[in-house]
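Hi everyone,

Forwarding the result from last night's run.
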Amino acid sequence: MKLPALQKALLARHLLEAIEDTEGSPGEIEAMWIAEAHDRLEAFRRGDMEAISSDEAFARIKKQLSQ
């Protein structure tokens, strides 16, 4: 948890690639993630999605996992 954000993202990407059961080449999977990121950015810009801090995001995740 003490890693900088970029290193966390890279680690998460490598972990997901190791366990994903998605058909497609690594390049296709990366393209899907990029498309998802673009879709979320556009939703944020339209006001359809709010931004929250990483602390809030992790708190929400921990709460959901504890239920």
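The two ends are 22 Å apart (CA to CA).

Cheers,
N.
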